[in-house]
User: Fold this.
Amino acid sequence: MLNRAYIGRRLPATTPVEITEEAVAAFAAALGETGGHIPPTFLISLTLPASDALIDDPDFGLDFSRVLHREQRFSHHRPLRIGERVSCTVQVEDVKVVAGNELLTLRTEVTAEDSEPVATVSTVLFVAAGGDDEEQSVAARGDDVEQSADVTPGVAAGAARSPEPARGGEAS
Amino acid sequence: MNSGDELFRRDFEITRADLVAYAGASGDQNPIHQDDDAARAAGLPGVIAHGMYTMGLAARAVTEWAGGPERITELTARFAKPVVVPADAPATVTVVGTVRRLHDDGAVEIAMTATSGADKVLAPARATVAAAS
Assistant:
């Protein structure tokens, strides 16, 4: 179970990161985007790493091996610009219980160096219940809920009981 | 433009090579998006696309329709089903955008469906495109 005391809590703002042409071009090329645009989903490559401190915090109780990416939202307050530097502030917005599983909503404010709001990025993670049925794979359990979810990072590691930490893929 | 009007319909192919490129670009190196054994160990039929890859394709369809990303103010998706990407052939995802609602300020709210075979993979997915200034 996630620690409910964290609801409303904010992580410190991340060190500003430059939006480089190279990073955007690689992201766009992977999606087959050839128009020279910044993909509207590009900020995911910044917002999910920004929540690392939360995932690493044992007191919060988030087991990434039981997590599926369920929902994603981007509110763009103004266009992102190449060459600007932005920072991310992650907040634990909500934890809901659905059929014994938990839905965690993380809300990340992306701001420019002059504090101008750039975007609000919300990520909903489905956290499968632990306990007696833990041997069942997360992917299978995800299908039991009305809306299943994309399988994120930890899932493979969790179901396979891999010794690898369930990291490296928070952006799923 | 009226509610229910179809705005765009796009077929996209996703290959294993695309997923490798996206893993590098996004930082999501989860092996279930690249390795069949890892995917099967997680209870999946095989390698699946990143949910954010499919959402990225939906975003691409909106971007191309709008002539750029600048007027896209809202973009949302729920990941309903995984897109399985075989090793030897691309998976196909079809994205269809229709007018959901016209806002008083001229913005268009678009409802999108993304399907792969018989599966709705994003359900629902939406975008709001501000009026051209």
About this structure: Residues 132-137, 140-149, 151-172 of chain A have pLDDT under 50 and may be disordered.
